Amino acid sequence: MGGKPVQLLTYGGFPGPTLRLREGETVRLNFTNNLPEATNLHLHGLHVLPSVDDPLALVQPGESRLYEFTVPKGSAGTYWYHPHVHGRVAPQLYAGLAGLLVVEGPLDALPELKEAEEHLLVLKDWLFSGDRVPAWTHMDWMNGREGNLLTVNATVRPTLRAQKATLRLRLLNASNARYYRLALENHPLYLIATDGGFLEKPVEISELLLAPGERAEVLVRLIRPGSYRLQALPYNRGAMMMPGGSRGDPGMGQGMGQGMGMMDHGGMGGMGDTGMMGSMMGMGATRLETLLTVVAPASPKPLPLPASLAPVERLEPARAAATRRLVLGERMMQAEFFINDRMFDPGRVDVRAKLGTLEVWELVNKTDMDHPFHLHTYPFQVLSRGGKPAPYRAWKDTVNLRKNEVVRIAVPLRNFSGVTVYHCHIVEHEDRGMMGVLEVR
Ligand code: C2O
Ligand code: CU
Ligand code: CU
User: From the CA of 172, how far away is ligand 2's center (Å)?
Assistant: First the structure.
């Protein structure tokens, strides 16, 4: 393919090296910053000491930091790492600073899982101008930047030639702002794990919405030979759309810039705020895209599904020590984002909670756009969405809030006291204020 080189920021390549960890082991990560700007390492989703996984501790250029932690028991699942420098997360993540953390545990020895063919799929979109990532426009800060170049493990529309008829896909949405509504042609997906690990048993789904920051593991049973497309179905997250226009340089050469989505922020060059407001048309959406092609083996004989996976603890929201309401708000034209009317301030504690208690958080999205809400350190369970109880129990660290939706979550604040954060995982929104501080004592 006639590509051309582009300048990225990476952990040695994109995606960064996959860190395979075992439950219970102690990990020492020696991290050195060779970038010309401050950065740090966030262990997204791992239940580890907040003073270790500290989003406010920066590693300056040329400096190193040791991240030492114990991988919690029962946490087998798919996690990831990325920088967390407030105000710079969007540019750093977008430019390629992300990698997977895979935690393995006893359940992975289950024959129905062990004998499946495992693939790690990191979904990410890009936008280039010449050989670089262009500067952020006001529009990017408002909506979160999306690019028209869609990749799986940094490859445009790769082909996955399956040797086996059962696939175990570990999926990560590493995009700044793009949502993926995933479906595999002619095949259901069997969801076996969410952000924080295994479900109690596989759940058959026809599609899977993966918001920025979310992970999922699915089993695919290929029953017929042939090629099947893994697609991103159209999804409207309510971003502002610009009329017409294209962004110019599609990126890496012919055939790579497949499809300018309706979310294309083109035509913005040199436009002032007033022009921008005048040309705002309404709500943007992504269109159908093919992400990857799966080629089934010649005479496929898939494994049976595991009858059960791991028990998922039943939390008791009736015994919650506190119920809180966190309201997500925005001042769109200013690209300013709020939780309970306040923008992020690292010197302020927004939520004080007691160690060892369970809390119920009512997450309210009062905007016209989806926001994936993410909490560090303490995995939670979704209780209800729009008043409807969650269909199954699952550990999460990121949950999508559709526009004007209310989602209730149960948050056990256990094991670690300290200071941590929660925020929107459209990282531009995080950079522009949609983050709060939680202190657990
Ligand atoms: Cu993946 Cu605070 O982030
Ligand atoms: Cu995180
Ligand atoms: Cu947001």
Answer: 13
Report d(CA 353, CA 441) in Å as an integer.
7
Which are the contacts of 178, defined by CB distance < 8 A and separation ≥ 6? 123, 125, 146, 147, 150, 212, 263, 286
pLDDT mean over 1-11: 85
Task: Tell me if 213 CB under 6 Å of ligand 1.
Answer: yes
145 within ligand 1 shell (Cβ under 6 A): no
Averaged pLDDT for residues 158-177: 98
- Domains of the chain from N-terminus onward: 16-104 (2.60.40.420), 114-296 (2.60.40.420), 317-440 (2.60.40.420)
At 149, the amino acid letter reads L
Transcribe 373-399 into DSSP letters.
EEESSS-EEEEEETTEEPSS--EESEE
In the sheet that 99-104 helps form, which strands lie side by side, from edge to edge? 16-22, 99-104, 77-82, 42-44
One-letter amino acid identity for 181? R
What does the pLDDT look like over 368-378, one tens digit per residue?
999 999 999 99
> Alpha-carbon distance 263 to 254, whole Å?
21
User: What is the pLDDT confidence band of residue 242, given thresholds at 50, 70 and 90?
Assistant: low
- Assess contact for 234 and 259: CB atoms under 8 A: no
Specify the ligand 1 atom closest to the Cα of 376.
2
| Strand-strand pairing, 289-296 and 357-365 | unpaired
- Provide the strand spans (E) within 271-340: 282-283, 289-296, 322-331, 336-339
Q: CA-CA distance, 249 to 181, in Å (whole number)?
A: 26
Q: Could you read off the pLDDT of 255-307 as tens digits, one per residue?
A: 332 322 223 333 333 333 333 443 344 456 889 999 999 999 999 999 999 99
Q: Which atom of ligand 1 lies closest to the CA of 55?
A: 2
